[in-house]
Design brief:
alpha+beta, two-stranded antiparallel ribbon
């Protein structure tokens, strides 16, 4: 993973803490790099992902999720009961 520290200096331990934070924030995502931007006492983090290809999105109650595991049991049941429509095929 490529890490860029912009606007100041940071110890390797601090960088490792930000990497751990981002790994926990985005479980299952492949991270290719981080830009850690120091602005005085504040730090902004820009995360770059390897898996930028669109895989699949599920629409549920006006929000999108990329993984059914993020939905509660009731929403998962609702999805399994829905009628599926084929895309691009004539009926």
């Amino acid at each position: 993973m490529k890490v860029n520290v912009i606007g100041g200096e940071m110890s390797p331990r601090e960088i490792d803490e930000y990497i751990t934070y981002i790994d926990k924030k985005y479980p299952g995502r492949q991270i290719s790099g981080l830009d850690i931007i120091i602005d005085g006492e504040f730090v902004d983090i820009k995360t770059h992902f390897k898996d930028t290809d669109f895989q699949h999105a599920y629409r549920s109650a006006d929000y999108l999720v990329n993984n059914m595991d993020k939905l509660n049991d009731a929403k998962q049941s609702e999805f399994s009961d829905k009628q599926r429509h084929k895309v691009g095929e004539e009926e």
